[in-house]
Amino acid sequence: MNTNFKFIHCADLHLDAPFNGINISNQKFLQILRKSTFLAFDKIIKTAISQKVDFMLISGDIFNSSEKSLYAQLSFLKQMVVLKKNNIPCFLIHGNHDPLNGWEIETNFPQNVHRFSSNVSCETIIKNGEALVNIIGYSYPKREVTKNISLDISKIARMQNNEAFTIGLLHCNVGKNTTTENYAPCSLADLNDSTVDYWALGHVHTMNILQHETPAIVYPGNPQGLHINDNTKKGFYIVNVHNNKPEFDFIKTAQFRWFNVTMIIDDSSIQDLIETLKLKMYSESFDIPGIFRFHIEGQTNLHNELRKNVKEIEKILREETDEEQCFLESILINTKPLISMEELSDRHDFIGIFLKKMNELSYEKESVTFVSDLLSDFSAINLLNILPKRGEKLNWESVIEEAKMFGLDYLMENEHET
Ligand SMILES: [Mn+2]
Q: Based on the domain organization, do 137 and 234 belong to the same domain?
């Protein structure tokens, strides 16, 4: 059949994500964060209307948590009514963040909205008396879905006896992607061994077209980055289908971007470093606001000054930048002193012994208890610097490195006092 239509494919809206665990004091920037998931979705709705798309797909995780916020539910409903007024049907599924067994208000979605249940089923869009598109979808009944649902969708797809373009709407992990939970796992081979023409996927937050056609396999990613490592291009796809062949248009929606930046310095001054960081912040956030975390690395004459004054440097940088345009989250100092660590650990004094012991620890995972006891003597503020930040995993090597530098600071400072 000669098919020509266009639709929007978006996923992982995570409406009302609270952005917990990020220390932002500036009220205006905090507002940018709080509104961001809603405004990103609003851009999707406005594009649907201006582009006069035939329908819209949302591949799960509409809400951030199963305890869906009331505000999020009502504002989503409002947007669905806007689509109704513009005669745009919307097909949606629920994912692991907003499964059907979570709390929700009694919702009467307008008639243009079809929400799939946890029984895989098919909806067919008819145009001029002919079946134009089959949409087969599945919503998570609960958070953990470990079954391969793609097989059930393909089974229903094979049962369709029309010639329509077939879309599989699924929140799933293709090919054991390690950046996200392994829910509704399936392989590329599973998705290829199917009569589905377009797999409209959700769950992985990085936009990625795994295959452009026969079948298309597409993750649009999330419209708004949610944490410091969720910093790829954010948006959704407008898909134009001509004679069963999809063409993709990616539209950006992020209201602000995250930057997790490593800077390597050598001989420098604190003033120069502050200027460099400031320049980086402004140059990266010229179009939309940015949140920055800097990791300062390198062997440098500034090593001791930086470690002692990092909080002051953060304060100065915040004062000297426009916090509604670029916000400094934190600066992490991972530098090394100019004095050679090898030379120091070769010394036959306590510093030498200390460094040798610390170097051995790097390889002994079972020493966790020993080191955590050792660190419990330091203040909580210092400990916070080595704990993993949101979106990161505990890095044992960096814990040891940090402990080593703490110890060395202390020993070197007191070296001439006794
Ligand atoms: Mn998600």
A: yes
